[in-house]
Automatic annotation (TrEMBL):
<dbReference type="GO" id="GO:0008270">
    <property type="term" value="F:zinc ion binding"/>
</dbReference>
<protein>
    <submittedName>
        <fullName>Homocysteine S-methyltransferase</fullName>
    </submittedName>
</protein>
<dbReference type="InterPro" id="IPR036589">
    <property type="entry name" value="HCY_dom_sf"/>
</dbReference>
<feature type="binding site">
    <location>
        <position position="279"/>
    </location>
    <ligand>
        <name>Zn(2+)</name>
    </ligand>
</feature>
<feature type="domain" description="Hcy-binding">
    <location>
        <begin position="1"/>
        <end position="294"/>
    </location>
</feature>
<feature type="binding site">
    <location>
        <position position="280"/>
    </location>
    <ligand>
        <name>Zn(2+)</name>
    </ligand>
</feature>
<dbReference type="InterPro" id="IPR003726">
    <property type="entry name" value="HCY_dom"/>
</dbReference>
<keyword id="KW-0489">Methyltransferase</keyword>
<keyword id="KW-0862">Zinc</keyword>
<dbReference type="GO" id="GO:0008168">
    <property type="term" value="F:methyltransferase activity"/>
</dbReference>
<dbReference type="GO" id="GO:0009086">
    <property type="term" value="P:methionine biosynthetic process"/>
</dbReference>
<dbReference type="GO" id="GO:0032259">
    <property type="term" value="P:methylation"/>
</dbReference>
<keyword id="KW-0808">Transferase</keyword>
<keyword id="KW-0479">Metal-binding</keyword>
<feature type="binding site">
    <location>
        <position position="204"/>
    </location>
    <ligand>
        <name>Zn(2+)</name>
    </ligand>
</feature>
<dbReference type="InterPro" id="IPR017226">
    <property type="entry name" value="BHMT-like"/>
</dbReference>
<dbReference type="Pfam" id="PF02574">
    <property type="entry name" value="S-methyl_trans"/>
</dbReference>
Amino acid sequence: MKTLTILDGGMGRELKEIGAPFSQPLWSAQALIEAPDFVSQAHQNFVDSGAEIIITNSYACVPFHLGEELFAQRGFELAALSGELAKAVADQAPQAVKVAGSIPPPFGSYRPDLFKVEEAASIIQTLYDAQEPNIDLWLVETLSSVQEFESIHGVLKQSTKPCYYAFSLEDTKGDSASIRSGESVKEAVKLVCQSNATGIMFNCSVPEVMDQAIIDTKQVMDELGQDLEIGVYANNFAPISSEHEANDMLQEMRELDGQGYLTYAKRWHDLGANIIGGCCGIGPKHIKALADWKLEVIEEK
């Protein structure tokens, strides 16, 4: 079995929790603009909790959050800063910590119907060029359709660094897993296996739907003779509907504590996931529970 690696948690919620400037539509980019020390502190909190991969705070460095004018003026600068801040924290960490460069949805989370192929490439290229000097791997986050994957992969295929593609799932359980477009996870996995990917992940969805996605992924990889890494980082949200407003990031929270989240994580690991962290609403206490559990796993071996 591949080595278990602990990913960090949700940057946006952690910024709010520690008192960073935070409002819509800027969301997590507001701290980059007004108070970058808070971004460093959020990264540090996850590293102190045991995270071995931290994700750059570039998720909101897109026109959707910044607006067209501010993105044109400062999008590259802010995305570059997100990489610099993460690298500085990682370099000072007592444990080995890698930096994942985040490539977010250019036109809003959970809404594949809002994706614009013609406009996406230049936005993604800007984020790529800005972060590339300071990151160890790429993490494309919250992919909601095959079309989004293909468009963003068109940019990332130039990279020589490990590339991971994370899909957001429909928040309903069934005999097979689907991404938010309604397309099957199996279809998405087949395409990822034909790309330059190092791994496939599932994020920004409720914990309950992750099991089936891992099962479907393993089945496709076995059929294709592939052995990509599998990662999971779920939300601490209630289920998200297909009518979700793309700029409404303040979802209803649930009371899932560190041990409650760990219960799901153990099952994901048993099913074949080797990279586990958290997305929206998953904070340092949840990551610490994962990191403590990893120590137990190592000791058992």
